[in-house]
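Worked problem 6 (solution included).
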Amino acid sequence: MRTDDDFERFYLGSRRRLVGLLYTVTGDLHEAEDITQEAFARAAADWSRISGYDVPEAWVRRVAFNLAANRRRRLVRHAAALLRLGRPEDVEPRGVEDVALVDALRTLPVRQRQAVVMHHVAGLEVAQIAAELGVPAGTVKSWLSRGRTALAKALTDDNDAALTEVRASNA
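Solution. The predicted structure is:
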């Protein structure tokens, strides 16, 4: 049985070569490095078996090439789906108020943010939100209450800071 030191030597001795091969196949260095890491991670997980092969690098290379092919197929399917959907509708430019609201929403914990957006933007009732998020209606009400309070404070703080900046620049 080979040790972790054996794997480290194997990795250091073959990583650059495999990245080079995958770069040639994918045309993307970042993707080649990412796939190489994934292939070596799989080899490390089963190193006791793979180290017994005559050429462990051949196993890692095969896994890496399979990963590259799978990624390529996934990208092609994704691109085809986007083409079927067509060009998205134009989105109206956002005003200063919208940007401030989005910034303030980012300060909320995720569940409060979800509840506020689902209720006030998507127009869902508390019961619908509770069902979608898998929580009691009282929890949603609590998130909404806390979220509204935090938003009001964040938006007021932002407005106070903006007003102070305007006053300073006009002085």
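Discussion: The mean pLDDT is 87.
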